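To close the section, here is one more complete example, presented without commentary so you can practise reading it yourself. The ligand is magnesium ion.
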Amino acid sequence: MRMTRLLARTLRETPKEAEVVSHQLLVRGGYIRQVASGIYNLLPLMWRVVQKINTIVRDELDTAGCQELLMPILQPADLWKESGRWDVYGKELVRLKDRHDRECVLAPTHEEVITDIARKELTSYRLLPQNLYQIQLKYRDEQRPRFGLLRGREFMMKDAYSFHASNACLDDEYERMATAYTNIFNRCGLETVMVRSDSGAIGGSESHEFMVLTHIAEGEQESGENVVFYCDSCDYAANAERAESQAKPATLNGPEGTSELIATPNATSIEALHKDFGFEPSLILKSLVYVVDEEKPVLALICGHMDVEETKLKNALAANTIRMATADEITAWTGSSKGFIGPINLPANITVVADANTEALTNFYVAENEPGLHRIKANWGTDVPKPSTFLDIRLVQVGDGCPSCESGALKETRGIEVGNIFKLGTKYSESLSATYTAEDGTEQPFIMGCYGIGITRTAAAAIECFHDKDGMLWPMAIAPYHAMIIPVNPSDEAQMALATQVYERLKPLNIEAVLDDRDERAGVKFKDADLMGFPIRITAGKKAAEGLLECKMRGDTTAQDLTLEQALAWAQEQFKTWTPRVTPTPELVAAK
Ligand code: ATP
Ligand code: MG
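Output:
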């Protein structure tokens, strides 16, 4: 490709709406352009990256025995009503009507349609197992589309779905997919960590996420939206929404005595109760009011030095949405005021959920559910109604004991979720009555798994990992082009001839190059080459008259002078072995 023909206009200024590095560089490098919030044109350079990732994905999945197909984006609402997700999916689901007034959706994911295929086509156990995948656009009206390709409203996903006659068969496939995913990300030049995750709205029993750990330089915006906790001595790693731990020891038993009320005016926070009244935070039974599915009030109870993990709480309540109640809602429901809500004399319509750590509390502090009053030396049963169950709704903390090896301590890092795998079980096959005839002649629901990879997000994650102040540093396998050939002065015959020769000779070696044949200043060409981030850079400058080319890899500070033949051999070697030098070494990776 000649630069004069390439559609890739670079920008010197950082677009102001772009917060994270990948978004900034993709816009500046002429890879993407925004059409609307969270919706982008993938220009030729970006599309090449996407296709390279897709080729790797296809190769690994086909090797693992999966089959590719293509399902529609526009789908009838009926299937979504049948599965029940029409009602529960929320505002992320794009709903529309066709000209006949029929309700439709733009698919955010494809469980409904694939299960419909299975119930029609996979009639017998003889046809199982099956793993079907597609690479397709997805639509989600995300509440906060941001970070460019990392969280769009339209994005490209590889989604695979497997169908089995037994759980053991699903377990095997799950393992095979975990291996395929690790291979895919490795081949893309990315190191990922597989972490246990919450199964969320999609349902099912077990799930893992593949995280690229972010390593943010000073002054850069954090792009890893997921908090990951991991053990410093074993391989336990889990998303914060799912992580378990053994809490650090804390005082849970207060001095014995008779329970009494004391005035605590203006002390509406744990800090204030501690500072003004000497209450030990771990001995305070903290009460938080939430609104579940926009209608039901819930009181969550947790030790004062701990925090509620809202996804855990949402799952404990089998809810679709959850948010903290406003001060007005709290007053309307309890008659008390924010800061003084407690599990005492609560209206019956308020559900109480207590964290497992609170069960051991004795002689503790608790708000009396009346403004300005707290009870001290309170106990379950006598002063506070004891909940029938105590559940894990707590956000684990750095330094907590590892739940797996029991000798390590948990640490925290942040990551970008590039893929995930789920054991769905029979959630969709049951709701959509998708069955096959088993060996014994009975009709059985399929046991299902599903497996996603964010293709466009993976590309952006690679830039989050590999960039410097001048631009991108693409891993060889997913770089849009492998090499940039720069004749410093295209009107200099020797330079242009030598540059053109390298360019032509690289083609049969499968090294894809761009020849910067623009009549531009050298500085501009070098800046653009750094920004666009192709791995190999070969420059024909003053020494072209002696038959020498300046060769260097993106990120190297010095170049070497090589003859044409030497340059070709060098390029071939780099093509096979090079990896970007700014490989981040987050603690977790280093520890392994
Ligand atoms: P997230 O928690 O980040 O919203 P998710 O759990 O909703 O992700 P899935 O529905 O499992 O994600 O989708 C599979 C993959 O698609 C994710 O692992 C992620 O890589 C990618 N993905 C999800 N939402 C987006 C988005 N809005 N933009 C780009 N990629 C996305
Ligand atoms: Mg999501």
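Once you have examined the tokens, check your reading against these statements. Confidence is low (pLDDT under 50) at residues 583-592. The chain has 15 helices and 31 strands.
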